[in-house]
Design a protein that fits this description.
Structural class: alpha/beta
CATH topology: TIM Barrel
Oligomer: single chain
Number of helices: 19
Radius of gyration: 24 Å
Shape: globular
CATH architecture: Alpha-Beta Barrel
Helix content: 40-55%
Number of strands: 21
CATH class: Alpha Beta
Strand content: 5-15%
């Protein structure tokens, strides 16, 4: 799809062509559909062992549903053995309940051309989520503000390879905790026309998300369709708290999607072994997805797996490691056997700067996610310092590299053009392919090309200031924000959203805890 966001100058001839060249274009690629196989690391015996062990955990050890008497009663009514706040789920019950969850679903955007299909062979890319700090080349590391949040939403909207606006692209600490979700939702709804995520930090904030979505899309449309995908983290190990479960209840009841995602740091919140961690991940997801179906059978839900290992010397989380890859590959197989969409992966790194460490770890993480069959990739760009920082430069560096995932996922074409036999015949022994007809017909699309990296000769690069990638990325951030043009929104809808935000904020005192 190609959308021209700036109105072209009227007229013909040279003026029209000049206007065409200088118009601001905002290209957005469609969500990825893989034409390559998933990498499957576990054999049938290993999968059956892990599935059996996960059911054993649910039945014998159980999971906690804290400070939520209604959830405990739902489980009793479903046939679980509830002892205090511990729920013991009989073997097979959770899997039976999960069977009503859809294997794929459409998340609608306010611009229908931006709708995404989550599940199957598709991969939807969304930006970083949750960091309280931001970093840029000029300002360094600092607490995030609402202006930073708006800037990241704009960068996401302008990024060709991102399909989704995301959720908490950074945590704006200059706005009260009990009110910031309103400003964040308003930014996603007005500054972008891509799909977005709702708030999960308190059940009433999930309710605000649904109400604002109804203003944006229309109440009837929201009742019949999924317009939000939101992140519900499990307090691993084996604990579901009232805040996250309350948000899940709101979204499931409204037929809005939730990612049910264990938050695993191997060695701290799960066993150090791959099979042990996968057992716990599966048990937690089974319990969470099953609970969503107790709220509303058929509610869309995603099998989530956020997994990292730990540095046993410092206790810090580590990223891009082979163990995390093993778990991510295996969790993908388990999700597909359950028939659920799968969320994992991202531009994970532990580096403090967008440097070589960040690049290595991020490349490992992105390629792992592509090959593991991920359907929804949160944190696809902008992640720095173990998720504590949203980086402006890394956001555009990562967003640029997401183009490689699109091209890798296309696979290898062996149609008549892909075979290239005409070119081989034309050139023959000892020739070159630069001027042949096949090359001339395909050169514009044959190879993926970065919009950020410097491919110039050394002399030209040196004359232009010998700029490294972070410097180029900083310039690209400024260009994208400078070129940004807000997508049109019906005036009545815009006024209704602004009024809702104002009224809700005026109805309560500021709270920063």
């Amino acid at each position: 799809m190609n959308e021209v966001t700036a109105r072209r100058a009227r007229g013909g001839g040279g003026s029209a062509r000049r206007a065409e060249r200088t118009a601001v274009r905002m290209d957005t690629a469609k969500f990825i559909t893989r034409n390559i196989p998933n990498f499957e690391i576990l054999n049938e015996e290993a999968l059956q062992i892990i599935e059996w062990n996960a059911e054993t955990v649910l039945e014998e050890i159980g999971v906690n549903f804290l400070e939520n008497p209604a959830a405990l009663q739902r489980w009793r009514d479903a046939g679980a053995d509830v002892r205090g706040e511990r729920v013991h789920i009989p073997r097979g019950l959770a899997r039976k309940l999960c069977a009503t969850a859809p294997s794929s679903f459409t998340q609608h955007a306010r611009n229908p051309e931006r709708n995404v299909e989550i599940g199957g062979k598709n991969l939807v890319l969304a930006p970083v989520y949750g960091p309280p700090f931001v970093r840029d080349r000029e300002g360094g590391r600092r607490y995030a503000t609402m202006q930073d949040f708006r800037n990241f939403v704009k960068l996401g909207y302008m990024s060709k390879w991102l399909h989704h606006s995301g959720g908490t692209v950074c945590e704006p600490t200059d706005v009260p905790v009990n009110k910031r979700h309103l400003d964040m939702l308003h930014a996603h709804m007005t500054l972008s026309d891509k799909p977005f995520m709702g708030s999960v930090t308190e059940p009433s904030r999930a309710e605000d998300s649904v109400e604002m979505a109804k203003l944006l899309f229309g109440a009837d449309f929201v009742d019949r369709n999924t317009v939000m995908t939101s992140l519900v983290n499990i307090n691993s190990p084996l604990t579901f708290d009232a805040t996250m479960m309350g948000a899940l209840e709101v979204y499931a009841a409204a037929n809005q999607a939730a990612i049910v995602s264990p938050f695993i740091v191997g060695g701290a919140m799960a066993p150090v072994t791959v099979a042990g961690t996968l057992t716990q991940v599966l048990a937690e997801v089974l319990a969470g997805v099953a609970y969503s179906q107790l709220i509303r059978p058929g509610a869309p839900v995603i099998f989530g797996a956020f997994v990292t290992s730990i540095d046993m010397n410092s206790g810090a989380p580590t990223f891009g490691t082979p163990e995390a890859s093993h778990i991510t590959y295996g969790a993908g197989q388990l999700a597909r056997r359950l028939g659920l969409p799968y969320r994992s992966g991202g531009s994970f790194c532990g580096s403090k700067l967008p440097d070589a460490q960040a690049a290595y770890e991020t490349a490992n993480s992105l390629n792992m996610a592509l090959l593991s069959g991920v359907n929804f990739m949160l944190h696809a760009c902008g992640w720095l310092e173990g998720g504590l920082v949203s980086s402006y430069e890394k956001f555009v560096m990562d967003a640029d590299q997401l183009g490689t995932l699109h091209h890798l996922a296309q696979g290898v074409s062996v149609d008549e053009n892909g075979q290239g036999m005409d070119a081989i015949r034309e050139v023959g022994p000892g020739g070159h392919y630069l001027g042949c007809a096949h090359t001339q017909a395909n050169f514009k699309s044959a190879f993926w090309r970065s919009d950020l990296f410097d491919y110039k000769p050394f002399e030209t690069w040196e004359e232009e200031g010998a700029r490294d990638t972070e410097t180029l990325a900083s310039a690209r951030v400024k260009k994208l924000l400078g070129d940004y043009q807000q997508p049109a929104l019906d005036e009545g809808v815009a006024e209704a959203l602004a009024d809702y935000v104002a009224r809700k904020k005026d109805s309560m005192p500021d709270a920063f805890i």
